[in-house]
Amino acid sequence: MSIDVLLLTTDSDPEAVLPALSLLPHEVRPLRPEVSALLEAGPHDIVLVDARTDLAGARSLCRLLDSSGVDVPVVAVVTEGGLVAVTSDWSVDEILLPTSGPAEVDARLRLVRSRRGTAQTGGDGSIQLGELIIDEATYTARLKGRPLDLTYKEFELLKYLAQHAGRVFTRAQLLQEVWGYDFFGGTRTVDVHVRRLRAKLGPEHESLIGTVRNVGYKFVRPPRPGAVRRGGVDQVADSADTSSSLDEAEFFRV
Fold it and tell me: Carries keyword Membrane (predicted)?
């Protein structure tokens, strides 16, 4: 199965960062090393950070990715001489040498992706993330076996976030993707529906929908049993919940 890899580098020759990647069937998209570039990149499986020459800059970028809510595996590509500089405070999931062969690169990328709780899609079109099951065929969602009483748009929003678990979306992006181009309401509509979803998920699971301050929302992948998240506990600042109360009467319950 092909892996969608985002390569953050300033090198004019992206293939030089990790030459073995060009021999593998994975999709590699070079991007400028900025968090904003990830928000515009669309869904992806892994982020590769070019740390061959600028260790300090790469470390800062990796830490920024972690604190900004980027919840896909981050892999740093460092030279052999730079290995000693990579410590746990980089908040990376894996490191690779530029000289690594295709077999090693492929194995490490697949392993690092499998360590994260990715969404599983069943043959019947259902989506499962931890104890949450979303059935597109019947437009139903169950949490720990309990059916969730969702409106059409609440279901669509939950489904879209779950399908792209870990990716951060701005309110405008969610409005466009879930409500459509011809919707004339404001982005506060998204905040209202997120509030309703969290209330229906309940106190124990409301954190599945995380808020990244000044950016938007993401679906937080449930940790695998016994797993420890990189960078410690995933503390997501919920700016929407601390904002002034919204007049929900202006929004249609659809």
Answer: no
